[in-house]
Amino acid sequence: MIKKYMNYKDCLEKGTENLERAGITEAKLDARLLLEYVCKTDHSTLFAHPDRAVTDDEEKLYDEFIARRVKREPVAYILGSMGFMGLSFDVSGDVLIPEQDTEILVEEALRFCEDKMRVLDLCTGSGCIALSILNYTNETKALCTDISEKAISVAKKNAEKLGLSDRTEIVLTDLFPGKEVGKFDILVSNPPYIRTDVIESLAPEVKDYEPRLALDGSEDGLVFYRRIAEEAGEYLYSGAYVFLEIGYDQGDEVKELLEKQGKYHDIEVIKDYSRNDRVVRACYY
Fold first, then answer.
1. Neighbours of 72 (CB within 10 A)
2. CA-CA distance, 144 to 181, in Å (whole number)?
3. In the structure, what pLDDT confidence band is assigned to residue 5 with cuts at 50, 70 and 90?
4. How confident is the model at residue 4 (pLDDT cuts 50, 70, 90)?
5. What is the DSSP letter of 67?
6. What is the pLDDT of residue 1?
7. pLDDT of residue 88
């Protein structure tokens, strides 16, 4: 008997149905992205050749990926990568998945970042923020910090992958590096900012898979912003800019923390594409 192989169309339909039954919101998109990866193809080819046969090995791997997504594991972790600012970053369960909202922070920083500037990236995770800034500027350099050794490993891999290792220093530390590193023109950070009591109410993709260390901003979600507001001045040139990603309801509180220090000026809360507060920008002098 001749074995009948599944084809693109069959696999996509089956994967979509399984994800829909599991309550995955973007079931068809996720099923397609996983199939494209497994079959080493792209969107256009997938739909131009729906009858292309899928091998047993491809079908088996696809079924495994769909089963992982049914359990709510994020697609980015399944594939091991995520697009951000037009670049591809390796990700794992040891770092947050780069989100489109965070591109607002990078885009805002790029408006003020000039060639040859020094960038300090606190809580770097995958390194996506600092490395994106370096990629789109000339002769800039970045020092990135994280408290997680595994996150540091991911960030170093991304720096190497993007050809930016020679312009990047990645340091294992609790927020700030030693003062011997000198001063910086730009400070960026997407610190943990979710209140501890809110985390369990988040989507399973977040609370069950993203690293708690990178999410938990303590009781009020502001612990890292306080530390940055109080200590950042020792690392900044006069006239340096600070860019902080924030939760949708933290704009006024983070702005007030900076104002109380008396050394941050021109403080502005910037909204994301959904019109939620997303970034606080301030000038230090």
1. 16
2. 11
3. confident
4. low
5. H
6. 45
7. 98
Delineate the domains of the chain, giving CATH numbers in brackets.
8-71 (1.10.8), 85-284 (3.40.50.150)
Q: How far apart are the first and last CA of the chain?
A: 79
pTM of the model: 0.94
Burial class (CB in 10 A: 0-12, 13-18, 19+), 62: buried
Instruction: Using the predicted structure, report yes or no on whether residue 237 has a pLDDT greater than 60.
Output: yes
What are the percentages of helix, strand and coil residues in the chain, rounded to 5?
45, 20, 35
pLDDT for residue 26: 96
- Interatomic CA distance for residues 254 and 260, integer angstroms: 10
- 168 - beta bridge partners? 142
Dihedral of the alpha carbons of 71, 75, 81, 85, in degrees to the nearest 10: -140
Q: What are phi and psi of 25, to 5 degrees?
A: -60, -50
Two tokens at 32? 């397609």
Residues with Cβ within 8 Å of 16's Cβ and at least 6 positions away in sequence, in order, are 27, 28, 31
